[in-house]
């Protein structure tokens, strides 16, 4: 079964600015797990080729702390349209029977400062990373990671407490 794919294109000020996520039907004992995909690494030329003026805005939350290096990572972790399309083709080829949904939208510019880049979030009991580039059939020309939070999703098997 081919998953539902929701792709939104939009006018954005740079080529790199598309987010991609997927919903895995069952994953690590949970159902409908949303996985946010991102680029964990990039060439220095990716960063130096971007005209950063007006791409990062004021913080969205009162307690957010602006950090130029972290703020830029939000955009550098995103995908170009060509990369997004490669990811979607890869997911359809290798994971379509396990996915319910693939979603892609452009980032909203200016990106609010103070947001945590996905690559800076630490793994823990419920939060983890899928390192696609370590999968034997991985064939994309760039590294790809997926961040998930199991605590945000229902267990596959409901437990009943008799009382």
Task: Provide a descriptive summary of the structure in words.
The chain has 163 residues and is α/β, with parallel strands linked by helices. The protein is 18% helix and 28% strand. It has three helices and eight strands, in the order βββαβααββββ. The protein has a six-stranded mixed sheet with strand order 1-5-2-3-8-7, with helices on one face. The longest helix is centred in the middle third of the chain and has 15 residues, at 81-95.
Throw out a few tags for this protein.
single chain; 163 residues; globular; alpha/beta; six-stranded mixed β-sheet; 3 helices; two-stranded parallel sheet
Q: What coarse outline follows from CA principal-axis ratios?
A: globular
Strand order of the largest sheet: 1-5-2-3-8-7
Q: State mean pLDDT (0 to 100 scale).
A: 90
Query: How many strand segments?
Result: 8
β content, as a range?
A: 25-35%
Uncertain runs: none
Structural class of the secondary structure composition?
Answer: alpha/beta
Estimate the helix proportion, in percent.
10-25%
Give the distance, in angstroms, between the N- and C-terminal Cα atoms.
41 Å
Largest sheet: 6 strands, mixed
Number of helices: 3
H/E series = EEEHEHHEEEE
Using only C-alpha atoms, the radius of gyration works out to 17 Å
Q: What are the SSEs and their pairings?
A:
Layout: E1 4-7, E2 18-27, E3 30-38, H1 44-48, E4 56-57, H2 68-76, H3 81-95, E5 99-106, E6 111-112, E7 127-131, E8 145-149
Task: Write a short abstract of this structure.
With 163 residues, the chain is of the alpha/beta class.
